């Protein structure tokens, strides 16, 4: 790997280690293996959002051309958010694409992601289904996001109604994640989700 | 681990050496050949040119449009940086180095490398965890070690606790990460053993849960069956009372107890039988037993009750009533008395009275029968009581 990328990541590490956010446990970066090309990020769900209380892990791949090109970031923890794919974890965020600037760091990226979680942009969606729900049924969206946070990110809010619906589908032989995704996509309409799964 | 801690401290020290004004925000190093942009930001010449060579023609800090023409060498800052000298922080090293070369110097400073050996020979080995005493010779060191055992142990345990905390926080983060990864990977490769285990585990939890639910269902159903059985037997009894055609057998249980009560409070103790119908759409009647006023005989009466078909019947009731006290063993000793209704008696009129109290609902307060039906001595002596029960048969026939 080119020297400047490695050196920068090393220095950024120190920056994150020093930062107040780490002390508040809201963001964190760890090495994966010995190289500085692959990192693991950790972001706490922002307060007063459906993600509150959850811990979200990120896969960060640092390209050789870093910092002249943005790091490739995706969510490893499943999340229900208009700008994040509920299937792959891919993120739609301008600074990770054409709006990247070399002065940005891992710390600013993680903080931007945290801000994105707090303020979604449904008009520039990554996941159209989620974005539609966000716009048309904001209450269902909030409940769903909160439920995903509980199931995948260790969030505190359990939703017994959703759990029982998921269980119904599991009893029909559907895998848990599929059941959860299908129900979430159909606004927790058990009949329509079942129809879609078996069609 | 201690060495690692030492290294991290060192890094932090080094970072704090560089004034943020002299830091290039692209490479995060000290500015080398600083260039000033039109928007007033400084970068290393190499860094900013590399950035602008890519498609983005904007400042890395504020994203304002920027091209190579808008860059100027910042010789003022360059001179300032050149003047910045830092003293090496390594113990024993007296070098004063230009800020620009600080990184290289730290990497190669011989005192940095020798420090560990130095500690081993002349400095207290507990130096790294906070013992600040300086010893010069080996014997001094030995003496120091002997004298300060307690302090060293305290220092050790403190650093041990710090270390544990540090490790724990790392571990928990790591295990969370592994879980999350598994969660994600399980999707990708359903055949892997972990995914299988994960699925099986989830399945067990699900089954246990449904088991508990089933248990609850069973309990609920059992309760329902019990209730239904009770209701059924009650209903059956009611059906019997309606369809008995005026022949009612009254098994009077706990006779001795009742007798005792009757003797103590004769005026307040009377017992009523269930109400029964003379036919399925007939008159409703019940029997009554109490102590006669001379305290020597049992009285046996019948009462007309308010029935469901009273409005369709002819009043006053007209018919024949047979009262018998059955002898359980010897039929010949059974006491059997018959009587005819009389139109004059108030007792046979339609029961239009309200509720007369808790014990006597919906019945004509005037009874018809015998105040001295049988002597109590006779009941006791002649074997009418079996299992503390006497049997009374009442037959009401309409004419």
Automatic annotation (TrEMBL), chain A:
GO terms for molecular function: ATP binding; ubiquitin conjugating enzyme activity. Signal peptide: none annotated. Residues 4-154 form the UBC core domain. Keywords: ATP-binding, Nucleotide-binding, Transferase, Ubl conjugation pathway. It is an enzyme of class 2 (transferase). Residues 161-199 form the UBA domain. Pfam families: UBA, UQ_con. Its EC number is 2.3.2.23. Belongs to the ubiquitin-conjugating enzyme family. This is E2 ubiquitin-conjugating enzyme. It comes from Cinara cedri. The lineage of its organism: Eukaryota, Metazoa, Ecdysozoa, Arthropoda, Hexapoda.
TrEMBL record, chain B:
One of its GO terms (cellular component) is cytoplasm. Residues 211-238 form a coiled coil. The keyword Metal-binding applies. SUPFAM superfamilies: RING/U-box, TRAF domain-like. Residues 245-396 form the MATH domain. Keywords: Coiled coil, Cytoplasm, Metal-binding, Signal, Zinc, Zinc-finger. It is found in: Cytoplasm. Its main location: cytoplasm. GO terms for molecular function: ubiquitin protein ligase activity; zinc ion binding. The keyword Transmembrane does not apply. Residues 1-16 form the signal peptide. Residues 24-63 form the RING-type domain. GO terms for biological process: innate immune response; lipopolysaccharide-mediated signaling pathway; protein ubiquitination; regulation of canonical NF-kappaB signal transduction. This is TRAF-like,Zinc finger, RING-type,Zinc finger, RING/FYVE/PHD-type,U box domain,MATH/TRAF domain,Zinc. It comes from Cinara cedri.
């Amino acid at each position: 790997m080119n020297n400047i990328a490695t050196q920068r990541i090393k220095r950024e590490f120190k920056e994150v280690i020093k930062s107040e956010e780490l002390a508040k446990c809201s963001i964190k970066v760890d090495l994966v293996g010995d190289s500085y090309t692959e990192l693991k990020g950790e972001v706490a769900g922002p307060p007063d959002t459906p993600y509150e209380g959850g811990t979200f892990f990120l896969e960060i791949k640092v390209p050789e051309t870093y910092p002249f090109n943005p790091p490739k970031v995706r969510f490893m923890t499943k999340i229900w958010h208009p700008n994040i794919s509920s299937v792959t974890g891919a993120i739609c965020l301008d600074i990770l694409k054409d709006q990247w600037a070399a002065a940005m760091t891992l710390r600013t990226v993680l903080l931007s992601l945290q801000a994105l979680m707090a303020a979604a942009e449904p008009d520039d969606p990554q996941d159209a289904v989620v974005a539609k729900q966000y716009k048309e049924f904001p209450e269902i969206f909030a409940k769903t996001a909160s439920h995903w946070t509980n199931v995948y990110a260790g969030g505190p809010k359990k939703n017994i109604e959703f759990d029982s619906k998921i269980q119904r589908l599991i009893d029909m032989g559907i895998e848990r994640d599929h059941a959860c995704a299908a129900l979430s996509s159909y606004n927790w309409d058990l009949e329509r989700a079942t129809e879609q799964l078996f069609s | 681990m201690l060495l690692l801690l030492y290294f991290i401290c060192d890094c932090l020290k080094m970072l704090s050496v560089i004034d943020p004004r002299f830091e290039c925000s692209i490479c995060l190093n000290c500015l080398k050949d600083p260039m000033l942009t039109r928007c007033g930001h400084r970068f290393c010449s190499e860094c900013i040119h590399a950035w602008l060579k890519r498609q983005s023609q904007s400042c890395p800090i504020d994203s304002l449009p920027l091209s190579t023409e808008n860059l100027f060498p910042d010789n003022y800052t360059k001179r300032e940086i050149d003047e910045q000298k830092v003293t090496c922080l390594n113990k024993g090293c007296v070098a004063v180095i230009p800020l620009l070369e600080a990184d290289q110097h730290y990497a190669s400073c011989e005192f940095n490398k020798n420090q560990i050996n130095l500690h081993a020979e002349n400095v207290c080995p507990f130096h790294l965890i906070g013992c600040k005493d300086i010893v010069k010779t080996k014997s001094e060191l030995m003496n120091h070690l002997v004298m300060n055992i307690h302090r060293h142990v305290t220092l050790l345990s403190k650093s041990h606790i710090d270390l544990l905390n540090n490790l724990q926080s790392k571990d928990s983060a790591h295990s969370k990460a592994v879980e999350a990864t598994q969660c994600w990977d399980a999707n990708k490769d359903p055949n892997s053993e972990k995914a299988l285990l994960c699925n099986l585990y989830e399945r067990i939890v699900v089954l246990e849960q449904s088991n508990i639910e089933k248990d609850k269902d069973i309990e609920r159903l059992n309760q329902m069956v019990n209730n239904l059985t009770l209701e059924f037997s009650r209903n059956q009894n009611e059906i019997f009372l309606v369809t008995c055609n005026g022949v009612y057998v009254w098994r009077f249980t706990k006779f001795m107890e009742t007798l005792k009560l009757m003797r103590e409070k004769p005026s307040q103790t009377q017992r009523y039988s269930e109400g029964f119908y003379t036919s399925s759409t007939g008159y409703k009647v019940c029997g009554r037993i109490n102590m006669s006023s001379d305290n020597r005989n049992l009285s046996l009466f019948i009462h007309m009750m308010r029935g469901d078909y009273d409005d369709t019947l002819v009043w006053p009731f007209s018919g024949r009533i047979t009262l018998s006290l059955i002898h359980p063993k010897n039929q010949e000793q059974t006491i059997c008395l018959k009587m005819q209704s009389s139109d004059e008696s108030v007792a046979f009129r339609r029961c239009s009275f309200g509720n007369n109290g808790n014990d006597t609902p919906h019945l004509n307060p005037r009874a018809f029968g015998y105040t001295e039906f049988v002597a109590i001595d006779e009941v006791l002596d002649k074997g009418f009581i079996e299992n503390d029960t006497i049997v009374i048969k009442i037959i009401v026939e309409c004419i």
